[in-house]
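A common beginner's mistake is to predict each chain separately and then try to dock the pieces by hand. The better habit, illustrated here, is to supply every component at once so that their relative placement is modeled jointly.
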Amino acid sequence: DQQVKQNSPSLSVQEGRISILNCDYTNSMFDYFLWYKKYPAEGPTFLISISSIKDKNEDGRFTVFLNKSAKHLSLHIVPSQPGDSAVYFCAATRSYIPTFGRGTSLIVHP
Amino acid sequence: DAGVIQSPRHEVTEMGQEVTLRCKPISGHDYLFWYRQTMMRGLELLIYFNNNVPIDDSGMPEDRFSAKMPNASFSTLKIQPSEPRDSAVYFCASSFRGKAFFGQGTRLTVV
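With all components supplied together, the output reads:
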């Protein structure tokens, strides 16, 4: 039973355009949400996070949106760059314990 | 801080052998997690520790898997005996206040 779902295994975007990665969760007790980026042969690295008391957090080209009523969060990357090509994992946390989605592979074409 | 350090980076072993994966968490972090990444299941939580104490090992697939954290700076994940289906990338992560940092992972191949 997946509590955190990333329904798109892959996404292809043109350089300069917006990339939107989506994530759905089922447990309303999750209180902190994170996005991680993973390159091949490396561990996931923290990208951006958002507390459940907020609905938006922005860091440079990256913005995370949280819709608690829909139990949905998304990561927007604007503008997308070829170096953004990686697997993106969303994570939802309850009492400091993260549960991860299965990841979305983003490919940004030059 | 050098981040979370895992060793070895790669391990190839024969079925039936014992395998030990090692992890040094970031100093000051109070949680340590062991994850397994596979194509089928993504990042699967195996076990986690809080202040060196195992809290939840319900993700450990079988009794062949065990984990220890003898002190705040070291943890091991042991598989005995190993089987080909254990082949995967194993990640260790440590966290403070919910933000987890991952090691580079150990790619385990059991032949």
